[in-house]
Description:
This protein is mainly alpha-helical. The chain is built from 2 helices and no strands. Helix 1 (2-32) runs antiparallel to helix 2 (36-66). It is elongated and about 50 Å long.
Amino acid sequence: MEENKNLEQMTKEVSDLLFDAKSLLDILCDIIDGDRKEDFLVSSAIKNIDNAFNCIEDCRKLISNAE
């Protein structure tokens, strides 16, 4: 049970960090204002962060089912 609590806390911390990174990338996206190369890089990073959020959600489901 304690291990699940630790995993829950870890996934929350990772989610918080990813959310902060995505927020910063959204600001950067506004700053670059559609320049193709930079927009591609920022969009790719945001897509990877969204995929990471999906993985974290899957982990949370596994943790909740293990309890």
